[in-house]
Design brief:
single chain, alpha/beta, Nucleotidyltransferase, domain 5, 7-stranded mixed beta sheet, 6-stranded mixed beta sheet, 18 helices, 19 strands, Carb_kinase_FGGY, ribulokinase activity, arabinose catabolism, transferase
């Protein structure tokens, strides 16, 4: 059982620093930040040796099925051992003046472990289900479908908090897949834990569960998980699943751990973790968090109505609000899920940067820069195309990862830059669909703020401003999640009383960085109307599901 600890007291000089570590899809990055003003003094990136495990398990000839995506925990540890010391060296600050560390992770990235936290893949590396399932592991879609159908039929009270459907990306669907496809692995798994919490366990020696991942990915609402009765109806062997989550109730010590508040102190850096990182033993370790949600602090966007779109391989849209509403197809609304005291909403697009990378890797021999240059010269609609941004399935608002991408209007005159531009536009249309769904549900979006790697493409940003018909603010950091984690570390170390106070001092964004052009916005309204027609036509899944089934049968 882990109770919240009092903030640490450090006898250090007036210069105090924190480290933020962002565990992404392909790499981990660390940044050293000054507590007083958020200045980023040094950073480093470690590319994962195993990257995304999609085809064959490392060191074996065991092949994976369609829509699998795994990661290696060793890659995460290597980020601590390699990137963090490199970032500290680059910053040139005395190690003894580093007072805390915060981390964030992709989600839902989840793994089975023993009771002491040992990943099962370390013990049985030839068993696919023993490995961590990355956020974009979509092979559990049939299990998510059953979870949703039964919850709707039973009228489960938690289902509307997730827009009427939970995702195949989340904890329960992935765990049900393990139970039904590898029951021996499920039986050995004493813990089913988010990577965001697992890494904190490795740093502190203390097991904890953060309220963010538990709420959004673990279907925890109003103080409880789905009932044992409901889980048993899904599968009798699933009845006791919640016991693998080391359950607790917010504010009360129940079971083995307590759900930990964001910005809280998870524990202190152990001697082993200090040796990995070069940070002093006993430094504050902030409660774990999700990459998207922690970025709100980095952009100083922790007030109601500030929607932050973290745009990278995928896009996650998160927004604090003082209103509770049911938004169709949202990924969830969680009390205290972004900052304590407010409701936190999440929506998203499963593939964005991944779509552009897929096209360039397979068809765009000119590369991103040249295709962008050519696409930018076109008038809106000149290519005669419209596309659906479902190449990784649809996270919001349809919540169906068995949907797939569609491009309409190609002719013998269609060029690579035409398709490239249509794909960019499709992701902007998907973002507009999300914003409109929130506002129609009574949750206003007052400011749209962009973070993530795709900020580097100015043409893409202008397309978004034109399609959304609203100004875009942009985060003033290339390492938004890592900076956000560092801000949380400053709160956990007791330097600021709240996330809001720390974000105001250490976060940063540029307002109205991109302003819509009225003529282009009008033209995009016409294209968006066609996107909506295409969205509704293919959204029932009949054709796209049939094609996927045919593909899976042929591959098998």
């Amino acid at each position: 059982m882990h109770a919240p600890e009092e903030p640490l007291e450090f006898n250090v000089s007036a210069n105090k620093y924190v480290v933020g570590v962002d565990f992404g899809t392909l790499s981990g990055r660390a940044v050293v930040v000054r507590v007083s003003d958020g200045a980023e003094l040094g950073s480093a990136v470690h590319e994962y040796e195993h990257r995304v495990i999609e085809h064959t398990l490392p060191g074996t000839d065991v092949r994976l099925g369609p829509d699998w995506a795994l990661q290696s925990p060793q890659d995460w540890i290597d980020v601590m051992r390699i990137a963090v010391p490199q970032a500290i060296a680059a910053a040139g600050v005395p190690a003894e003046e580093i007072i805390g560390i915060g981390t964030d992770f992709t989600a839902c990235t989840v793994l089975p472990t023993t009771a002491d936290g040992t990943p099962l893949c370390f013990e049985t590396p030839a068993e696919p289900h023993a490995w961590p399932k990355l956020w974009k592991h979509h092979a559990a879609q049939p299990h998510a479908d059953r979870i949703n159908e039964l919850a709707a039929r039973r009228g489960e009270s938690w289902l509307p908090r997730y827009g009427g459907k939970i995702s195949s990306e989340w904890e329960f669907a992935k765990a049900l897949q393990v139970l039904e496809e590898a029951p021996e692995v499920y039986a050995r798994a004493e813990r089913w834990i988010e990577a965001a919490d697992w890494i904190i366990w490795q740093l502190t020696g203390v097991e904890s569960r953060n309220i963010c991942t538990v709420g959004y990915k673990g279907v925890f609402q109003d103080g409880s998980y789905p009932s044992e009765e409901y889980l048993a109806e899904l599968n009798p062997g699933f009845a006791g699943f919640v016991g693998k989550l080391a359950t607790g109730t917010v504010g009360d010590k129940v079971g083995e751990v307590t759900l930990a508040p964001l910005g809280g102190l998870a524990g202190r850096l152990t001697a082993r973790a200090a040796e990995w990182t070069g940070i002093p033993e006993g430094a504050a370790v902030a409660v774990g968090n999700v990459d998207a949600h922690v970025t709100a602090a980095a952009a100083d966007a922790v007030r109601p109505g500030q929607m932050v779109a973290i745009m990278g391989t995928s896009t996650c849209h998160i927004m604090p609000s003082d209103q509770l509403a049911e938004v169709p197809g949202m990924c969830g609304v969680v009390q205290d899920g972004i900052v304590p005291g407010l409701w936190g909403y999440e929506a998203g697009q499963s593939a964005v940067g991944d779509i552009f990378a897929w096209f360039v890797d397979n068809f765009g021999t000119d590369g991103h820069e040249r295709l962008t240059e050519l696409a930018e010269k076109q008038a809106v609609g000149q290519h005669g195309l419209v596309a659906l941004d479902w190449f990784g399935g649809n996270r919001s608002v349809l919540v169906d990862h068995n949907l797939s991408g569609v491009i309409i209007g190609q002719t013998l005159a269609t060029k690579p830059e035409d398709v490239y531009r249509a794909l960019i536009e499709s992701t902007a249309f998907g973002a507009r669909m999300i914003v409109e769904t929130f506002e129609k549900s009574g949750v206003p979006v007052e400011e749209f703020i962009v973070a993530g790697g795709l900020l580097k493409n100015r043409f893409l940003m202008q397309v978004y401003a034109d399609v959304l018909r609203r100004p875009l603010s942009i985060i003033a950091s290339d390492q938004g999640p890592a900076l956000g984690s560092a801000i949380h570390a400053a709160v956990a170390a007791g330097e600021y009383a709240s996330i809001e106070e720390a974000a105001a001092a250490m976060g940063k964004r540029t307002e109205n960085a991109y302003v819509p052009d009225e003529a282009r916005a009008d033209a995009y309204d016409r294209l968006y109307a066609e996107y909506r027609r295409l969205h509704d036509f293919f959204g029932d899944g009949q054709m796209l599901h049939a094609l996927r089934a045919i593909r899976n049968e042929a591959q098998a």
